[in-house]
Amino acid sequence: MRVSVIGCGYLGAVHAASLAQLGHTVTGVDVDSEKIAHLGAADPPFYEPGFADLLRSSLASGRLRFSTDYADAASCDVHFICVGTPQADGSRAADLAFIRASVAALIRVLEGQTRRTVVVGKSTVPVGTARSIAADLALTSPNTVLVWNPEFLREGLAVKDTLEPDRIVYGLEDGERGQFGARTLDQIYSQALGRNTPKIETDYETAELVKVSANSFLALKISFINAVSRVCDATGASVTDLSSALGLDERIGPKFLRAGLGFGGGCLPKDLRAFSVRAAQLGAAGLAELLDQVDRINLDQRDHIVELTAAAAGPDLAGQRIAVLGVAFKPGTDDLRDSPALAVAAKLAQRGAVIAVYDPAAGPNLPAAIPNLPLTVAATPADAVKGATAVLVLTEWPEFSNLDPTELGPLVARPIVIDGRNTLDPALWRQSGWEYHGVGVR
Ligand code: UGA
After folding, report:
1. Active-site residue flag, 267
2. To the nearest whole number, what is the mean pLDDT of the chain?
3. CATH architecture of 215-437
């Protein structure tokens, strides 16, 4: 099919290249000309494992092109909206400006078209947004059908999640038009559906809520285990063993029960907050309070790690050299959006600590992300820890669990390690003469 993908960030760019890979003819559209130039030259503007190869082969197939001009999408049968919905400035609600702008631009392209086209919303939006977009489209482009089709891809696994989704959800309007939208999307996703990927057809509101509920539930699991980790600290229990035992109950499951510095990134925090705001608007005060508490517990983990550092390295952090290993919001990405690790580094720097950061992917992005913070970006873990009075592991990149504490010991001023992700082997580090502190573990 001929499709356009409006918005070429993590979601849109991977979606566009994946659809081309699946045999569709794709035009990726974004207002950011620099991003479009990079994508068109097969040079990914962000780090995502497997994406560079996918982009290269999709461009080489001749089925993928990129443009800053919506008019280039005019001949497409299906238009995917993949623009960002970040947290609004000065508010906890979602900022829908990019959605509004993209729909307005799309309407100008679709206006007056006589054949049926399908607009597919993939961005994460507050419940009620799809119905209002459908009303706007109906005014000017009555032949256009809107489907809400949330995306569940994880950064770091975006290519796999896009090509092999674990579920497909369609939010549809009632009747024949909705069915037309559903059958059109079935053609787009024919390979995944052919593998019996579960599909749920529902209304707009449910489809919108599935997405924010999924992210909020993941956030809830993480904050639950982090809150429990404090009780483990107070009693000498091990949150790691506790998580393993909890995870064996298949009603609970083992995933998203890793205690540590908490969640961050461009999705979980802002979706949780936007859902809380929307729930409160809709009179669901209990849900809003629950989500707010999840957020508070999460943010509190960042202060907890700073206090743990101050308690171990001496209360006055001014002038102390502190090494931060890992600054991306999670391993497998160079994304620094709402990174818990970066927040801790910033808090330590505000208390006068001299910070050296090492991250296998996100290092080069640091100066732009925090232009005013005096951080040094180190080329290796060994460079980062030189002369440090504390070493903090804040993102669980696999290479950190393989660090040799006996090699790093002679480089530091004091052998204190704060394992903010419970990713190191405490016994190994202690045997090598280090003072080890984890989260909810002895
Ligand atoms: C998240 C969801 O997992 C995706 O399903 C969703 O599609 C995506 O948001 C989105 O809305 O676009 P992502 O932001 O890539 O994906 O990150 P996650 O893998 O969910 O991790 C989020 C955060 O939770 C990370 O900071 C991670 O370190 C933290 N985390 C995760 C924990 O602290 N403990 C855990 O046990 C698991």
Report:
1. yes
2. 96
3. 3-Layer(aba) Sandwich (3.40)
